[in-house]
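Aim 2 progress update. The chain analyzed this quarter is reproduced below.
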Amino acid sequence: MKNTAADTSPLLLERAGAIATLRFNRPEALNAIDVPMARAFLAAVQTVAADPGVRAVVLCGNGRGFMAGGDLATLRAAPVQGAIDILTPLNQALLLMAQMDAPVIAQVHGAAAGAGLSLLLMADYVIAAEGTHFNLAYINLGASCDVGASWALPRIVGVRQALEIALLGEAFGADDALRLGLVNRVVPADTLEDATTALAQRLAQGPTRAYGAMKRLMRQSLQHTLPEQLEAEKNAFVQCAATQDFESGVEAFHQRQSPVFAGR
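Predicted structure tokens:
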């Protein structure tokens, strides 16, 4: 069931059970991010983050592609202020998204360029359609990257490969994205939505708080020394051990049954 204020909104928030879908909705501009879209994205992420009933999140785009990047009309009219007005709410949204327990899946098709590529790098899992084209692209405009790309890309592909992608600004396809680890799966375009839904349903039935702990441990690990990370793991495990889902999981193991998790 859709839960949207209006189909003309630049960002559509849809809800199906425990799955929330954030759908970029500027298809005439290949979903390029302008100020209204950035603000709508932040509002949607705030709504989702505050709802404990959301146990999986999907990011996707309407029309021919996932996202073409920042809106050049906005940046041409007011380069500095436009960048500030777009990136401030986007960064707030990304921080909230990273802190959410619910896993975030990016469903990508057509094109993911500039901020579109940066954004999918910040998701927890990425499914791409065959034929999708990727390009970090910032350097082609004389700009440095944003939306977390400089944080996520070196962690995924290594600094040397990240610099090649960033400095050359060349397009590459879905198979290369898979080889580099930028996406988790590549599927035929006509099965993309079904594959994403199946994964979201699986994750939405999982131990949501444990997912959140695992996300945070993985993302912070490169900033921690081994002693710090061991302590963080211990604290996270102890917190998970106090949850209903952990009790259910242990009991199901002893009963030789499949666990049923409530996300609590």
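The chain has two domains: 11-204, 208-254. The beta strands are 11-16, 19-24, 56-61, 104-108, 111-113, 125-129, 133-135, 172-173, 185-187. These observations will guide the mutagenesis experiments scheduled for the next reporting period.
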